[in-house]
Amino acid sequence: MEKETDDFKIIGGRKLFGGIQTNTSKNGAMGLFCAALLNKQETLLHGIPRIEEISRIIEIFESVGVKIEWIEKNSVRIIPPKKFQIGKIEDKASTKIRSVLMMIGALIHSEKKFTIPHAGGCKMGQRTIAAHRYGLESLGVTVKTKESCYEISRKKLKPADIVLYEASDTTTENLLLASALIPGITTLQFTPPNYQVQEVCFFLEKCGVKIEGIGTSTLVIYGIKEINKPVEYWNSEDPTESMMFVASAIVTNSKLTVTRCPIDFLSLELLKLEKMGLKYAKSKNYLSKNGHTRLCDIVVYPSKLTALYDKIHASAYPGINTDNLPFFVPIATQAAGTTLVHDWMWENRAIYFTELNKLGADIVLADQHRVFIKGPSKLKGNEIVCPPALRPAMIILVAMLGAQGESVLRNVYSINRGYENIAKRLNAIGANITFLNDF
After folding, report:
1. Is this model's pTM higher than 0.85 or not?
2. pLDDT tens across 155-190, in order?
3. Which domains does the chain have, with CATH numbers?
4. For the chain, which residues score pLDDT lower than 50?
5. What is the 3-state secondary structure (H, E, C) of 381-409?
6. What are the C-alpha distances in Å from 434 to residues 16, 154, 172, 199, 422?
7. 181-213: buried (b, 16+ CB within 10 Å) or exposed (e) per residue?
8. Would you state the pLDDT for residue 427?
9. Which residues neighbour 2 within 8 Å (Cβ) at sequence distance 6 or greater?
């Protein structure tokens, strides 16, 4: 199991320089892993990040009989068993990630009744499964919530016209997997066409499933009887990692080139930053290895920023990505004026934003969803324990890069869940991050 007591020491206030490549996405990889369970033959996935979240899904898959083999640094071969051993599912790993829910959409095609542990992931407030349950019920699946698990059962599966209870990426992926092997036409409405949803769609198309409306809020899935052939697929890049590097350049007032950025999932964020005064340049677009996702290289220049008059808030795509929203917090600490960041989606995540006050930021919590950030602030080093949530933990590290002096960030497991070798990669562009070994 994972080591949970890694700590970073950061010497901040250093300029970043050169260029850094955006890694492939955690969220895309998790959807692809679950989609691979639909295939009776082997699936070869490229561009899988070596992160803690992937380690947890591998532990879960192996516990139920799936054969997993790393064949290169970031390539994985997945071979499902003839019979899943669902009763042996790894409980501890399952309760650490949200993506375990997407196994339901795949496993209903081979199991008539099974249980999975309650899903985990970032601790940021209530995370209902109502949208999953209502959508799956329309397809003929019954989901019952027990004290420590979800009880799943089904009789005859049937195609349906479904309106999602909420615009949820994970729910959309779950229903895509469920619909893919139900012969007939299933329609999903109010679907967010976010990058991880599109990734699953492109993979299913490669498996022989016809899907109309990719990139829109309505998906039409032409289900097939089975997927029984070798499939090879490339996962695309992570827009939230691109956003993190852009934020790091801004907070350190650096010139930095961020390559392989999924521009369709960063355009609104860049527009907001442009209106705040950010100077940047973009290359011509080119395609990711999946053959679909548009990428570009972004050069960030040192800039004087001014707070926007209106609030910054997330929305279902094509709005600001909810995972990108937190990065506006350290950015806003360097902008003249007062910025309102409204994180309506999570009950408790905005509370974590105030951790930057320990570094000298001026952030006032208006309520559990909104913060007012007054800038510019001169950030200074301090010691902080990572929150139990990926993006709030990462924005503390970003702020520490710009904070003068020495900082210590305790228990960085939250960061390692979603970012591969992040200390080494940031050090390659001028940061000074080392591991503490005092445990």
Report:
1. yes
2. 899 999 999 999 999 999 999 999 999 999 999 999
3. 7-23+237-436 (3.65.10.10), 26-234 (3.65.10.10)
4. 1-4, 121-126, 438-439
5. CCEEECCCCHHHHHHHHHHHHHCEEEEEE
6. 16, 51, 39, 35, 11
7. bbeeebbbebbbbbbbbbbbbbbbebbebebeb
8. 97
9. 52, 55, 56, 413, 416
Q: What's the pLDDT score for residue 126?
A: 47
Do residues 49 and 29 lie in contact, with contact meaning Cβ atoms separated by under 8 Å? yes
Please provide the size of the chain in residues: 439
The answer to whether 413 and 123 have CB atoms below 8 angstroms apart is: no
Report the pLDDT value the prediction gives residue 123, as an integer from 0 to 100: 45
Place of tokens 């913060």: 371
Which residue do the tokens 């360097």 mark?
334
Give the helix/strand (H/E) hosting 152: strand 149-154
What pLDDT was estimated at residue 127?
55
Separation of alpha carbons 149 and 146, rounded Å: 5
Cα–Cα distance, 395 to 437 (Å, whole number): 23
CA separation for the pair 404, 12 (Å, rounded): 5
Query: Strands, DSSP E only, in 279-425?
Result: 279-282, 286-287, 294-301, 305-306, 312-313, 335-342, 362-367, 370-375, 383-385, 405-410
Running DSSP on this structure, what letter comes out for residue 253?
T
